[in-house]
């Protein structure tokens, strides 16, 4: 049996004047950042550069904050890809899969229009449906990989209505739930789902999947550790 640890952080909501120091706060070899670092791409880059000093791998999915100041979704995605690709130890997880010792990590933004003034409703629906289709395909493809024992899904958007705990925004009522992507998880390999875009801390299990977020709601902020156990026969 082997354990792999991930530090979960997200929803940092940093402005250009905020300080962010992660020295001596890492508890794992790897880190998952579930979006919403900042509207300012310079702050995004500086934050990822900083985090990359403390982890062997930082897996990052951009959130709605990162898109608010963009001219368009495709243009902003290209800008984020450009600023991330040369940062040591940082992987842009959006619509990509990374694997570590039998664990696959796949991520999307999820495009919720809740609280996102940059993206209009029509574009949000289209982008969200595209992302769900990618996630379905990705999970389906990973079912056939015998060396992949478990899957972690990362989304900036909230994946399940129950995770709002009866506080679901009215504007999100008509959105297709991201959990519909689980229809292709025939071997039940998805064991953990890391998400953002919610300002209350969540760590709960729904139908054998652990859902975790870790928003920064004060200046006293630490990682939430996610431990994945893998081994022969799992």
CATH architecture: 4-Layer Sandwich
> In which range does the helix fraction lie?
10-25%
The description of the largest β-sheet is: 6 strands, mixed
Catalogue the unreliable spans.
Answer: none
Chart the SSEs and their pairings.
Blueprint lengths: L1 E8 L20 E4 L7 H12 L4 E4 L3 H5 L4 H12 L5 E3 L3 E5 L2 E6 L12 H23 L6 E6 L34 E6 L7 E4 L2 E4 L11 E7 L4
Parallel strand pairs: 1-2, 2-3, 3-4, 6-7, 7-8, 8-10
Antiparallel strand pairs: 1-11, 5-6, 9-10
Q: Explain this structure to me?
A:
With 234 residues, this protein is α/β, with parallel strands linked by helices. The protein has one domain: Metallo-dependent phosphatases (Purple Acid Phosphatase, chain A, domain 2, 4-Layer Sandwich), CATH 3.60.21.10. It is built from 4 helices and 11 strands. The strands form 2 sheets. The protein has a 6-stranded mixed sheet with strand order 5-6-7-8-10-9, covered by helices on one side. Strands 4-3-2-1-11 form a 5-stranded mixed sheet. Strand 9 and strand 10 form a beta hairpin. The longest helix is centred in the middle third of the chain and has 23 residues. The protein is globular.
Descriptors for this entry?
single chain; 234 residues; Purple Acid Phosphatase, chain A, domain 2; 6-stranded mixed beta sheet; 4 helices; 22% helix
Question: Could you give a short description of this structure?
Answer:
This protein is α/β, with parallel strands linked by helices and 234 residues long.
């Amino acid at each position: 049996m082997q354990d792999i640890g991930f530090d979960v952080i997200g929803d940092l909501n940093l402005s250009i004047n905020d300080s962010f120091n992660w020295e001596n706060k890492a508890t794992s070899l790897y880190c998952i950042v579930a979006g919403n670092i900042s509207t300012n791409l310079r702050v995004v880059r500086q934050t990822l550069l900083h985090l990359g000093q403390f982890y062997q791998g930082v897996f990052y999915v951009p959130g709605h904050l990162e898109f608010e100041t963009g001219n368009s979704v495709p243009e902003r995605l290209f800008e984020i890809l450009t600023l991330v690709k040369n940062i040591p130890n940082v992987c842009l997880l959006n619509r990509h899969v990374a694997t570590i010792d039998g664990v696959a990590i796949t991520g999307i933004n999820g495009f919720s229009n809740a609280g996102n003034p940059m993206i209009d409703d029509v574009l949000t629906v289209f982008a969200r449906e595209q992302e769900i289709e990618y996630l379905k395909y990705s999970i389906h493809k990973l079912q056939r990989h015998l060396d992949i024992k478990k899957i972690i899904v990362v989304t900036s958007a909230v994946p399940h209505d129950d995770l709002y705990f009866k506080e679901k925004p009215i504007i999100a009522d008509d959105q297709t739930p991201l959990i519909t992507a689980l229809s292709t998880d025939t071997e039940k390999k998805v064991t953990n789902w890391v998400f953002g875009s919610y300002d209350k801390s969540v760590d709960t299990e729904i139908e054998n999947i652990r859902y975790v977020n870790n928003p920064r709601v004060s200046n006293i902020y630490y990682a939430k550790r996610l431990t994945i156990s893998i081994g022969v026969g799992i």
